[in-house]
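Quick start: what a row looks like.
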Amino acid sequence: MGVSTSAPQEGVAVVTMDFPPVNALPVRGWYDLAAAVRAAGADPEVRCVVLTAAGRGFNAGVDIKELQRSTDHAALIGVNRGCYEAFAAVYDCEVPVVAAVHGFCVGGGIGLVGNADAIVASDDATFGLPELDRGALGAATHLARLVPQHLMRTLYYTSRTVTAADLHRHGSVWQVVPREQLQDAALELAREIAAKDGSLIRLAKAAINGIDPVDVRRSYRFEQGFTFEANLGGVADRVRDTFGTAGTAGKEPS
């Protein structure tokens, strides 16, 4: 349980999330994930990182129960900073990051895969941002890297999900395979990337990040400010406690 790193083949590091039952990461988990990805990318022997998960799904976002147990804003601040660090670690990783996604990839999971360099997904994978049902705002920055602008807005406002096949049609998922073939497919792509010269692949990663049209760190940080506003105003708790149901949206507390 937690975050682990393995080296199944030369030049490739696999960072695995394992937080049962649904890979909803606590504050400490996001920081541990960030540290593991950074360490893997800094290893001179590594030329590609595969980000994967154990269990039922890739990532269910933050641990909502941890937020609900908190009597102040410490958990919210911690998880926002932790998510920021983990997303940035994937984006800033010195070598390319391949996300291997199965099952559900929602909330914070979108932040991870949206900042990855390539995505391989199983045919049962679904992607979405149910933030408006969880009393939060954020990661639209990363969803916008996966789908066109108007689709991103519709998915965000409705909390709907899309399939791996949908994202493959949009060009953001490299390959869709049966679940039992996911690890092998991700490692095959990683092996192809890792066959490049280590110094040159690092320069390539820095160059591609340098020409990105959107500063993902600043953009995501801007979004997080609205999450704090929703929490300070009491809206977040009201929505989070009902997961966006019971017709509470937009109503004042009685």
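That is the whole record. Residues 28 and 224 are 18 Å apart (CA to CA). The radius of gyration is 18 Å.
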